[in-house]
Amino acid sequence: MSTSRSILWVEDDVDTQMEMQKAFGEKYKIVFSPTSRSAEILLLEGPSNYDLVVVDLFLESMSRDDGLNLIKYISRTHPVLPVIAVTGEGRHEDLLSAHRLGASHSFIKTDFDGERWGNEFENYLKPYVFISYSSKNRAFAELLENRLTPHCRKVWLDNIELKGGAVPIREIAEGIRKATHFLPILSEAYLQSDWVEKEYDIVSRQEISGLTRVIPITYGIHEADVPNYFTQLRIDFGKVLNLIGHVDLHHAVFHKSARPMHEIFDTALQELDQQFERLLRALRKRKPEKY
């Protein structure tokens, strides 16, 4: 079993540690921390070492407020790191507080079910990617889909020209709302679609709410090729899309290619190979940057 994905588990009870290690240790690398303070130190030393944090709100070594403050601290200092809160039976108000402070999910310890907990871990450890593209760029979109599929829990491939036809608009909107990451392939054909602004009306609200991270991919165009209405859209939504003037792969992968279609594809393919690991690192970030 691969243990490349790591969980920081804030838990001081040795028996519980052994139980969790037995249930999940073959699939994940688990680092146990007995206190909130030691967890903060571990995160300061290497926040990228962990893909998920599990916080037991009621430990012998710390109070309820310590656990909630730790969740608040993680949400503030490591906003892309998902946190799952755990509490004892009958403490639903504490779970509500944990969610308000930034917890992604929660469990009641007395309802422990290894399969159910494991499914939720997977839910927060793997991205759900929505790729939007023009049919003229289908070959590259399918290539990107194939490359990403082993690393994602789901990849939705959406042809922007089919909206209102084969795929209902409500289904498309629901797909976007479920996605942790939205990857539009920005080409000349894509930007000419009437649906671009409508699609971004949905996804921009998602990113503003901290629900969906946008990673635009320009395909065969330069920044100057992006039409005025699209740059205006970015301005209107306060850097939500972060398209123009950013080549930082936290948000964008840029393909500066020649105009002939076969050259565009060959260049994009070459750059995808070169930047794929960086794209995967970008996909590990679960929430949009704070502006």
TrEMBL record:
Residues 125-272 form the TIR domain. InterPro entries: CheY-like_superfamily (IPR011006), Sig_transdc_resp-reg_receiver (IPR001789), TIR_dom (IPR000157), Toll_tir_struct_dom_sf (IPR035897). GO terms for biological process: phosphorelay signal transduction system. The keyword Phosphoprotein applies. It holds the Pfam family Response_reg. CDD domains: REC (cd00156). Residues 6-125 form the Response regulatory domain. Keywords: Phosphoprotein. The modification 4-aspartylphosphate is found at residue 56. Signal peptide: none annotated. The keyword Phosphoprotein applies. It comes from the Bacteria. This is Response regulator. It comes from Flavilitoribacter nigricans (strain ATCC 23147 / DSM 23189 / NBRC 102662 / NCIMB 1420 / SS-2) (Lewinella nigricans). The lineage of its organism: Bacteria, Pseudomonadati, Bacteroidota, Saprospiria, Saprospirales.
